[in-house]
Task: structure prediction
Amino acid sequence: MLADDGKRALPLSDEIEFSDMEEAIDAPERVAPVIEFRDVCLAFDEKVILDGISFSVRRGETKIILGRSGGGKSTIIRLILGLIKPDAGRILIDGEDITDYDEPELMQVRQKIGMVFQEGALFDSLPVYENVAYRLREQGVEEDEVEAEVRRMLRFVALEDAIDKMPSELSGGMRRRVGIARALVGDPEIVLFDEPTAGLDPPTARTICELAIKLRDLHDVSSIFVTHEMNNLRYLSSEYAVIDENGEVMFEKEGERLCMINTEIMMLRDGKVGFEGKDEELMRSEDPYIRTFVHGK
Amino acid sequence: MHLAAPERAAFCLPFSRLRCNLSLFFDETPPTRFLMNPLFRFIAELQDVSLLLWRSVVSLRHGPRYFAETLRQMDMIGVGSLPIVLLTGFFTGGVLVLQTYPTLEYYSIQNESGRSVATSLIRELGPVLSALMVSGRIGSAISAELGSMVVSQQIEAMRALGTDPIRKLVVPRIAALILMLPLLTVAADIFGLIGGGIVANYIYSQDVQVFVESVRNGISTKDIIGGMIKPIFFGLIIGVVACHKGLSTRGGTVGVGRSVTNSVVTASIWVIIFDFFLAKALQYLLDIGRL
Ligand SMILES: Nc1ncnc2c1ncn2[C@@H]1O[C@H](COP(=O)(O)OP(=O)(O)O)[C@@H](O)[C@H]1O
Ligand SMILES: [Mg+2]
Result:
């Protein structure tokens, strides 16, 4: 479970043999994709947004989605949650085909998914506490259990003292972090981040990336991280979290010995998948479109 | 390439209106020129509103119900609107007597001034004016609230967190309007009669006893029943229109402003149009309005 002791941690510390790691990754329940798109098409009126998108996210993997604004990144996330339906193609969550599910069935699927919205999307009329507790309240959980869970989540995003504030009193970064806490209540196995760092200062953006890294490496959460900031991409695809001997979370850079395989990048281009692979391949790409994206020229 | 029409309509409504409307009439997404046609736009909107109402009714059958939220809305709608509705009623009753008394006096039937105020207030002006005031105060608030929740993605967040916004937001608001508007109307009627009595007594020096007597003679139980049935429908109209306009908001904060204006204008016009047909129906059903 998602406690700070890292019980579900991936074996990423130095003592682990490589053979162990491969075994863990190739275990049958880890190979089946958690999220899978098969040839998904979607058009709004006459405007084609997604034109045959296929990809999959494995358990414990983070998929970074790049693409220009208006390119359909948020649309992909809405499709995963079943907030909209594709015109064609199939969407599978945990091996379940949710494409034709109705609202009550989708509600069940959404229990497994935490969603961090572009601007936080906090409920303005509710204080931070109630925002984070929202999902538990809807499930009719006991009050003391709710309080313990809310405090645990706010501690995870380092915002415990904002518990009684209203969303309008929070800064942009705090709103985003409350949004993350709300998404993580109930320990979802999938977390979707929609441009969680857009419009934030670099240190706050870094904090949010660290949260995403912690979820990936210490809590075995599969996630999709939509962004178009290259800093985020660099943090997510080259650093990993470990617990040191004092029980503190540390962030280390991948090096000669360890190459991260749990983060992949996908770039959307004109409604199609324009690139899919590791960050090294992206950085080396000679494609002019990708180069303008990565290097800004 | 496209979902079967009813399936798409039922799912999308009201969260992506352009995608679902008219799909009952066309196999494919309709060409843009149809969307521009006012008649088709009207039919599409009527379809959307009916579907929203239908889904609200269906959601009453089972599943979570939000009583606390309904109570909160009743407080806001009922207690909150009381002052403006009372003022409206009071001065309308007053002005009715002020304007009709001289005419009645000309025909020497000024003793019946209470009757004329009572009939017009209870049958028509009480329900319609209260509905218009509530549409201005509450209809606008509802569509502004829901509209800003749409543009700040709060509605999507709600669905992502496993709540049906129709149950949580739409049903309590419509229910509160249906329950509170008849009560507000009664309060407006009573204050209108008081206002009329004060004008008759202080300006035209009519004996209070005479006024009260003619009010008593003027109204029947059927009038009162009719005057209570109308606001039920008006509450429904205001609630459904405001929720629909709010939830179908597009285009950021500018869109919210547009939704609010549309909601008040549309609800007010529908209240006035419906009033005519309701009056006709009630005349027929309850046999009122004929002497
Ligand atoms: N409900 C909708 N109706 C019509 N067009 C939409 C709707 N939602 C999104 N779009 C359009 O789809 C495109 C992709 O949007 P989005 O997925 O939000 O892009 P982004 O990659 O910036 O997140 C945009 O051009 C937007 O205008
Ligand atoms: Mg977006």
Notes: Residues 1-18 of chain A have pLDDT under 50 and may be disordered. The pocket of magnesium ion (ligand 2) is lined by residues A 73-74, 118, 194-195 (CB under 6 Å). The first helix of chain A runs from residue 18 to 26. Chain A has one domain: 18-26+60-83+101-295.
